[in-house]
Amino acid sequence: MTKGTDVSDKKINGKLKMALELGPVVLFFAAYVKLKDQVFTIGGADYDGFILATAGFVPLMILSTLALWKLTGKLSKMQIVTLVLVVVFGGLSVWFNDDRFFKMKPTLIYLLFGGVLGIGLLRGQSYLKFAMEEMLPLEQEGWMILTRRLCGFFLALAVLNEAIWRTQTTEIWVYFKTFGLSAAVFLFFMTQGSIFQTYGLDEEEG
Questions:
Q1: Buried-exposed string 131-155: b where 16+ CB fall within 10 A, e elsewhere
Q2: Smaller CB count within 10 Å for the chain: N or C?
Q3: pLDDT value at position 62?
Q4: Parent domain of 35
Q5: pTM of structure
């Protein structure tokens, strides 16, 4: 390794990385399940369990993201954007005692990511390649196909989140947000195996 290697080359234990990325979400879900049927009076205002769980989730998300940055030396644009939206919309939900702000957050995240990928596609480029090229070495055509599919997938998730939070109970939305969205993303990439087989680059080519 050369003397000029920067902090972006820092490695982190995979289990610790997963704990930092998923920990705040798991703790939010646990807090909501424990507090969902309770109402707390603070400063003369009544707050339900969802708002209190959100109030705890925001600082946890900040701390976990800062820890990831400290340990790895870098953050992806997706992590930064997600943190900003969590702080802004989570903060608005707590400040105005209105859970709608926090429930809209996934919609805006997926619209933003889908929109950015869509703009790149209109310009004949794959912005996904710029973000994930080191992790997924693919031929250019493979990147374009994957980007088109992921763009449509993100936009579909945005619509789905809006439909769920506007028509279902808070409890159903929490389960959907915690498990449904994560499972959907996992299944999406699991079903893209044909792209990686057809357009994947060997290590020598990459």
A1: bbeeebbbeeebbbbbbebbbebbb
A2: N
A3: 96
A4: 1-97
A5: 0.82
